[in-house]
Design goal:
Length: 341
């Protein structure tokens, strides 16, 4: 049963940014500066939000920017995607440097969502639109691909083809499962994942929003993350909510509603990673709706640990150590939960 015992929550939502993004995306909590990194995609702005002052500083780039992930070795540097390129951004100089490029023969393709796995390896998906002069949402179906990039060479490696809107991705706490969204088809896929090699196998349809009654009114699955219990959190575009899903059964566990329709992505952050930060888009919305653009929710009862930053120079030892830390942290945190209930 994927429809019963849904816990609703909408009591502690607040707006945390004075800035109003056209298309807010890619939230990533930076624990070194206690700031929220995010993107204003269509405006080409890479943003850094001080959640205490609610002020944002940003760097403008010419093109479509969709992700920003700090370097594990130097938080003044960040891996970003710009159109079909992966680039290194320097917050101090505001300059960028090319790291990789994909789909060079597909001029209307561009990157969308992306994250790093437990080793610091970057994953990002691209998809196609029908033409730059047309509506940016005019999708060219099945033209997208999910890529990974292994440092230091950053040679693109294609994993999943014929994706229509490559979007949210996350891993299970033990890094043995990978979950991946195609928003256009409203499907979440699952894979077996080998963190040491970066291989995906055993692709399955984990959840089809079109076929399960509990999800038919949940809009389009967009950004995704997981909490400390391994439960999936998914931003629902055109549905004013984020939802929590059991990764074993697909059961809908919890809904959190927001005063904005076009919810795009989400991440945990703040002290102890107990705050859920949510981005949204305002294209086509009223002035009142546009006020609720980047929000924070504090009543879900969930928390997570920090997101993985980009690791530009991994070694075999690094891979082993990070996998060991991830597994031990997962076991420890779950033991802590059991002891405190």
């Amino acid at each position: 049963d994927k429809t019963s015992s849904v816990l609703a929550s909408n009591m502690s939502v607040s707006v945390v940014s004075k800035r109003r993004s056209n298309l807010g995306e890619g939230p990533h909590w930076d624990c070194t500066s206690n700031t929220l990194l995010h993107i204003d995609a269509h405006l080409g702005d890479v943003c850094r939000l001080n959640v205490l002052s609610h002020e944002t500083d940003s760097i403008h780039l010419d093109g479509l920017v969709t992700i920003v992930i700090p370097y594990r070795s130097n938080p003044d540097l960040a891996a970003i995607t710009l159109d079909r390129q992966v680039r290194k951004l320097n917050w101090t100089t505001k300059g960028t440097e090319l790291l990789a490029e994909v789909d060079q023969g597909k001029i209307n393709n561009h990157f969308n969502d992306g994250k790093c796995d437990v080793t610091g390896r970057l994953w990002a998906g691209a998809y196609g639109i029908k033409g730059k002069e047309e509506c940016p949402d005019d999708i060219d179906p099945e033209k997208g691909t999910l890529y990974s990039f292994d440092p230091p060479g950053m040679e693109p490696k294609a994993h999943v083809h014929k994706i229509s809107i490559s979007n949210g991705m996350t891993w299970s706490p033990d890094s043995k499962k990978f979950f991946y969204i195609d928003s256009f088809t409203r499907i979440i896929y699952s894979f077996d994942f080998n963190a040491a090699t970066g291989e995906l196998t055993n692709q399955q349809v984990f959840l089809d929003f079109n076929k399960v009654e509990a999800y038919k009114d949940k809009g389009y699955p967009d950004g995704m993350t997981h909490d400390i219990e391994g439960k999936l959190w998914v931003a629902c575009y055109d549905a004013s909510r984020v939802i929590r899903i059991d990764p074993e059964t697909g059961k809908l566990l919890q809904e959190v509603t927001f005063p904005a329709t076009k919810i795009t992505s989400l991440c945990f952050g703040g002290q102890n990673y107990e705050d859920l930060y949510v981005t949204s888009a305002w294209r086509g919305l009223s002035d009142e709706e546009r006020k609720n653009n980047l929000m924070r929710e504090r009543s879900s009862g969930s928390r997570s640990w920090g997101p993985e930053d980009f690791n530009p120079t991994p070694s075999t030892f690094d891979v082993f150590q990070h996998l060991k830390v991830a597994v031990n942290t997962h076991l420890y945190e779950n033991m802590s939960i059991v002891c405190t209930i």
